[in-house]
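Agenda item 2: magnesium ion complex prediction
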Amino acid sequence: MSESSSAAPPKVVVVIPTYNEVDNLPVLVDELKQQGIDGLGFIIVDDGSPDGTGQMADALAERFDGVFEVIHRESKQGLGKSYVAGFQKALEIGAERVVQMDADLSHPPAEVPALLKVLDDADIVIGSRYVEGGGVDPNWSWGRRQISYWGGFGIRMVLGLKVRDSTSGFKAFRRSALEAVGLERLKLSGYGFQPEVTYRAQKAGLKVAEHPFTFIDRTAGRSKMSTGIALEALFRLAIMRIRG
Ligand SMILES: Nc1nc2c(ncn2[C@@H]2O[C@H](COP(=O)(O)OP(=O)(O)OP(=O)(O)O)[C@@H](O)[C@H]2O)c(=O)[nH]1
Ligand SMILES: [Mg+2]
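Presented output:
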């Protein structure tokens, strides 16, 4: 784990989990820096990417004037566990607001200021593909659209979620919201992690808002979404809900 380069607690920390994102990460960090976000900091959680993303993150941290933490973990442990580690670190260093987004530029950095603005009047804001004004990459195949839409719909039904986009990984939280969700009790690590967080937030009575954005497919690196992944998540979430 690297040291922060500044002692002042960041107002906004962007938590980014990475696995083999060496081409995407510097572009993402650069674009976020250009958004004029006051008190911006970063936490990168890298799971020992063989392509050198971890070292790239260290180099970016060296060059950044502010809080830039890099959590290096030895092996690939999944998205959920990476987020939990990143969120815990964000709380530990005193972040007031926490943004989560993928490293692969699917979540547009230019939308982060808008997400934060909506957060002024909410506990959590979800970057949403399924509210008016949102959407998915026009290049998505019919099959991928179906998996995403129906997978998300099934999860909403199973969990009784009010939000339209239950599986979005583009979110902003107030510090108090992350505390209320209870990071230590989150169990799912794959596709089910995002809905689990939203479910816990809804159960805790938090105000969850949605802000439209258009999801753009990764151009660098490989995609791996499948029906199997969506069904597994659905099954695990159903078990979670039954157990309470
Ligand atoms: N630390 C860590 N990051 C991961 C892991 N798996 C995926 N990620 C990162 O999590 C984010 C989301 O993963 P993606 O691979 O983009 O998942 P996706 O968007 O559902 O699928 P595609 O982009 O279509 O492959 C990216 O920033 C990945 O680099 C993991 O096991 N550990
Ligand atoms: Mg992706």
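Discussion summary: The longest strand covers residues 12-18.
Owner for follow-up: CH.
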